[in-house]
Write a structure and sequence with these properties.
Blueprint (H helix, E strand, L loop, with lengths): L5 E3 L10 H7 L13 H16 L4 E17 L2 E19 L2 E7 L4 H18 L18 E4 L11 H16 L4 E19 L4 E18 L6 E5 L10 H6 L2 H16 L2 E2 L3 E7 L1 H13 L4 H4 L31 E4 L21 E5 L2 E2 L13 H7 L9 E2 L8 E2 L3 E4 L9 H6 L3 E6 L4 E3 L5 E4 L3 E6 L2 E7 L1 E6 H6 L1 E4 L6 E10 L4 E9 L2 E10 L5
Parallel strand pairs: 5-7, 9-21, 10-17
Antiparallel strand pairs: 1-3, 2-3, 2-6, 3-4, 6-7, 7-8, 10-26, 11-12, 11-16, 12-13, 14-15, 17-20, 18-19, 19-22, 20-21, 22-26, 23-26, 24-25
Helix pairs in contact: 2-3, 4-6
Length: 537
Amino acid sequence: MRRRDFIVRGAVAGGALSMLDLRALLAQPARRDDFEFDAQERELAFRALDAARAAGATYADVRVNRNRSQSVSTREQQITGISDNETMGMGVRVIAAGSWGFAATNALTSDEVARAARQAVAQARANALTQLRPVELAPAEVTPNGQWSSPIAVDPFEIAIEDKVSVLFGANRAAQGVRGARFVSSFFSFLREDKFFANTEGTVTNQTIYRTTPSVSVTAVASDGSDFQSRESTDLSPRGLGWEYVLDSDLGGNAERWAEEAVEKLSARPVTAGRYDLVLLPTNLWLTLHESIAHPTELDRIFGFEANYAGTSFIYPPADFLGRFRYGPEIMNIQGERSSRGGLSTVGYDDEGVRPRDYLIVRDGVLNDLQTTREQAPWLSDWYGQSGQAVRSHGCSYAQSWSDVQFQRMPNVNLLPHPDRDVPLDELVDGVENGILIDGNSSFSIDQQRYNAQFSGQVFREIRNGRVGGMLKDVAYQLRTPEFWNSMDLIGGRSTYWVGGANNDGKGQPSQINAVSHGCVPSRFRQVNVINTGRGA
C-alpha cells in the first residue's frame, strides 16, 4: 500500500542538458494508475473517522491527498531547471466540545491515522477553553459517492520531458528572432491532485484536479544599452486543463508578438500624469477584480478572522452593505462559481464535501452575497432570512495539501458580460477622446482594507478621438474601490469574455496558496487618475 511519499526527480541550473541526460533523469515515470486511490487507503480514511468519533468528536472529516507537481524552465536554448515532486498524506479535521481541531500524517497505517484523529480531538478540546461560541455548520447535502475530474484531453504527465523542452525552445527561438529582443525565458508547470474526502455525515467524494501553466518572458535592450523593457506573457493565463491547452496556446506565435511589444516599449513615450478614460482589457482587469472585489468579499476578512496578505475588508459590518451598497453601475454583475471549464478554482466538491453552486456576489451593481463555508454561512443567517435564501455554504472551503487545514478560499469570481447586448471592443474605444488602453497585468499595491489601490500593466496604448494610437510607458492607475467601479460606464459583450487567473494567491498564517480564475470583459472607466512610474517622472 505504501508508495513514494516524496520524489524529487532532478534540478538543473545553468548549462544545457542533453536529451540523453533527460531520459536518465526521468527514468521510470509514474504511471497514471499510480494515482488511483485503492481500497486500503479508503479504509484508512474510515478508520480515522471512527477513531475521531470514539474520542468524542461530534463531527469529523478526512482528506487523503496525493499531489504531483512538475516544472520545466528554460532560458534561450538552455534548460535551467526541472523538478518533479510527489507528496501524499491524510488530514483529519474534527469538532469536539464545540471547537475545531486538526492533525495530519503521511504515515498511512491503521494505528497512525487513528492517532492523528485522537490528536485532532485533543486539540479541539484545548481550543474550547478559549471558545467564544460553539462552531455551527450550515446544512449540506449528503453525497455518498461523488466523482469529478478536470475536463482534460491529454494528461500533461504523459508527455515526455523532451517534448515539453522542445516546445519551450521553439517559443524562445521565435522571440529571439525579433531584432532587439535579447533575453527570453520560459517555463511550464503542471499539477495533478488526487483528493479523497469523507465525513461523518456520510459524504464521500473522489476528485482529480489538473492545472497547466505556460509562461514566457522577453526582455528587449536598446542598441546603446541605455534602456531595457520586458514583456511578460500575462495574457496567457494558467488553466485547469491538460497538455491540450499548451498546444492551443500558439506559444511560438505569441512569443514573437510579445518580443515585438518589448522592443516597441523601448521607443514608447512616457505618459503624462493626469486623468484619463481607461479601456482595460480583461488581461489587465482580472487582477483589479481579484484585489478590489474578490478579496474584500471573503467573509473571514470582513469579520477580521483573516488579516494576512493585505488585511481585512472595507465591507463591515456586512449587514450594512448587503443589499444596499452600490459597488458599480447596473450593468455590473459579479459571479462566484466553481463550475466553469478550465477554471483554476473549478471542482466538483469543495474540501468540506459541498457541491458549489453559481451565485451573484454583485447583482445589478449592488452587493448581493459573500463567499462562505459551512461554518461561515450561519454568520449571515439574518441576511439570508430577510432575502429569502437558505443558509447554505457556497462551497468555498479549500486546503493546499493534506498537511494543511481547510479554510475559506475564493471561488472563480467573474465580471459577467453586458446583460443586454454583445458590445464589441471597438464601441468602448469609440467613446474615448483622451484615454489609454491597457493590456496585461504587472505590479500593484492595495491597502489593508482593499479600498485604495494602484495597478499597472504590460502594454499601454494612447486613445485619441476614438482611435487607438502609439504606445505609452510608465503607466499606473490609482483607484478607490467604489469610486472606480462606479466610474465604469460600458462593458464588453459575450464575445469579448476572457479568463485570467493565478496559481499563487496567498492567504492565512501559516500561509497557503490557492489557484483562482477570474473571467471578465473589456471595460471602460471614466476619468481615472494615472501617474508616471518612471524614475525621471
